[in-house]
UniProtKB/TrEMBL annotation:
Protein origin, superkingdom: Bacteria
InterPro entries reported for this sequence: KR_dom, NAD(P)-bd_dom_sf, Sc_DH/Rdtase_CS, SDR, SDR_fam
Listed PROSITE patterns: ADH_SHORT
Protein name stated in the entry: 3-oxoacyl-ACP reductase FabG
Family: Belongs to the short-chain dehydrogenases/reductases (SDR) family.
NCBIfam families in the cross-refs: PRK12826.1-2
SMART domains: PKS_KR
Sequence ranges assigned to domain Ketoreductase in this UniProt record: 5-183
Length: 251
């Protein structure tokens, strides 16, 4: 039997990350489910194992260098060298600029930018050694600017530059790097936005869907399917790209 390739998905206890972990397991990867709460990770990993896949749940704060080093070492030990990395962990600390605190700024930069940097640095060591790798970073349509999200939009635009640089540096080792930039996806994150705007989640979805060309909001599985392609072996000539998955044209 050929050995299973190992994929790491961060922020995978729920939302887009959980859907991606489950999708990659169905695609044949052994999956490391990383998130802040190890018990929540284990729930997703358990579902994967119940379905006949291989998975391990690992509690890691991606913004913490020591935790990242220990977590990636544990993945390599328990599953094998990670050759696929999906940097998905994310938070929002939305506010208009004049009300945004330094903590709001630092927290968002810490998880999205520093977290992706630390995770990528730890995993690329395995990828370059294996002469094979696939990295996908979660950007956002908010990278183009979004009211109340100065911190988040800056981080998500930053991830696009980070992705292109990874593609340039790592290509010769057989490693590709791409970004997926979702539009509105129905998860706890968009539910929190509805709460901040003081509208019901249902009304928020209906109102948003009316502005999207395909006339619906996105589901975590829409993003997981796109990531599934980008981490596949046959996507080896696609690198440094930003794929907007938003139900309509954005660039
Ligand atoms: P979500 O439901 O809020 O899930 C995010 C996950 O990341 C949570 O499980 C969270 O853990 C985890 N996380 C937060 N900080 C972390 C850290 N320091 N270390 C490890 N894990 C951490 O969000 P989502 O909607 O699925 O979003 C996933 C990604 O897609 C994010 O990068 C987000 O910015 C991006 N995105 C989402 C949308 C959308 O419409 N939903 C659109 C564009 C881009 P806790 O639950 O313990 O906090």
């Amino acid at each position: 039997m050929t050995e299973q390739r190992v994929a790491v998905v961060t922020g995978a206890a729920r939302g887009i990350g959980a859907a991606t972990a489950e999708r990659l397991a169905r695609d044949g990867f052994a999956v490391a489910v990383l998130d802040l709460d190890e018990a929540a990770c284990e729930e997703v990993a358990g579902r994967i194992r119940d379905g006949g896949g291989s998975a391990v749940g690992v509690g890691v704060d991606v913004a913490d260098a020591a935790a990242v080093a220990a977590g990636v070492a544990r993945v390599a030990d328990e599953l094998g060298p990670p050759v696929v990395l999906v940097n998905n962990a994310g938070i929002i600390r939305d506010n208009l600029l004049f009300k945004m605190t330094e903590d709001d700024w630092d927290a968002v930069m810490g998880v999205h930018l520093k977290g992706s940097f630390l995770m990528t640095k730890a995993c690329q060591a395995h990828m370059t050694e294996q002469r094979y790798g696939r990295i996908v970073n979660l950007s956002s349509s908010s990278a183009q600017g979004n009211r109340g999200q100065a911190n988040y939009s800056a981080a998500k635009a930053g991830l696009q530059g980070f992705t292109k640089t990874l593609a340039i540096e790592l290509g010769k080792f057989g490693v590709t790097a791409n970004a997926v930039a979702p539009g509105f996806i129905q998860t706890d994150m968009t539910r929190a936005t509805a709460e901040r705007l003081k509208v019901s989640f249902e009304d928020f979805i209906t109102h948003t869907a009316a502005q999207i060309p395909v006339a619906r909001v996105g589901q975590p599985e829409d993003i997981a399917a796109t990531i599934s392609f980008l981490v596949s072996e046959e996507a080896g000539f696609v690198s440094g790209q930003v794929v907007y998955v938003a139900g309509g044209p954005l660039d």
